[in-house]
Design goal:
Elements: H1 2-22, H2 25-49, H3 55-74, H4 78-98, H5 112-124, H6 127-147
Helix pairs in contact: 1-2, 3-4, 3-6, 4-5, 5-6
Length: 172
C-alpha cells in the first residue's frame, strides 16, 4: 500500500510543477484535490476488498504450526522448532491486529508465557524441557478455549505428523 502513497506524491509533485508554470493555480489546485480524493477513495476501496482471515482460520494455522513444532522439538530439530515457534507468534500477532472486535482476543496474552518456555527449551536444546513447555502450551490453548466457550475444541499433543511430506529430523 505504501507504493500507492509514493505514486500519489509523485503525481502531486508533477502536477504542482505544472500548476506553478500554468498561471491558473486555483483551477489546478482544485484538480489536484479532486485527484487526491479519488486516489484516497481508490485506496480505501482496495483495503475494503482485501482478504482478511477470520479467527478460526488463524487458529487453524496455529494448530498446524503447533503440531509441526511438536515433531521438530521431539526430534531435536531446533532450527525448525524455532521457525514453527516464530510462525505461531506471527499468527498470534496477526490475530491481535485484525480481530480487535473479538472478545476472545482478551485471552490471547495467556499464550505468551508458554511460548517463552518453549523458546527457552529451544535455546537450551533440551528435549525434556521442550516436552514440559509444550504440554503447558497445549494446556493453555485448552484453557483459552474453555474460557471463551470453545471447550468443544480440544487440542492434544499430536500422535502423527500433520503433513506426510516433511521430515522432522534435523537436516544433514
Amino acid at each position: 500500500m505504501k507504493w500507492v502513497y509514493v505514486i500519489s506524491a509523485i503525481i502531486l509533485s508533477f502536477s504542482l510543477v505544472r500548476c506553478s508554470s500554468s498561471g491558473n493555480n486555483s483551477n489546478a489546485v482544485q484538480q489536484l484535490q479532486s485527484q487526491v480524493s479519488a486516489l484516497q477513495d481508490s485506496i480505501q476501496g482496495m483495503k475494503d476488498m482485501m482478504y482478511k482471515p477470520g479467527l478460526g482460520e488463524l487458529m487453524i494455522n496455529i494448530q498446524l504450526n503447533h503440531a509441526k513444532l511438536w515433531f521438530a522439538g521431539i526430534n531435536g530439530n531446533w532450527p525448525l522448532a524455532n521457525f514453527e515457534l516464530g510462525e505461531i507468534k506471527e499468527t498470534v500477532q496477526t490475530a491481535r491486529e485484525i480481530e480487535t472486535d473479538r472478545p476472545e482476543m482478551k485471552s490471547i496474552p495467556m499464550i505468551f508465557p508458554p511460548l517463552d518456555s518453549i523458546n527457552r527449551a529451544i535455546i537450551h536444546k533440551d528435549v525434556n524441557e521442550f516436552k514440559r513447555a509444550f504440554r503447558l502450551l497445549t494446556n493453555t490453548c485448552n484453557t483459552c478455549h474453555r474460557d471463551n466457550n470453545f471447550a468443544f475444541n480440544v487440542i492434544t499433543i499430536p500422535a502423527v505428523p500433520p503433513v506426510p511430506n516433511q521430515d522432522f529430523k534435523p537436516g544433514k
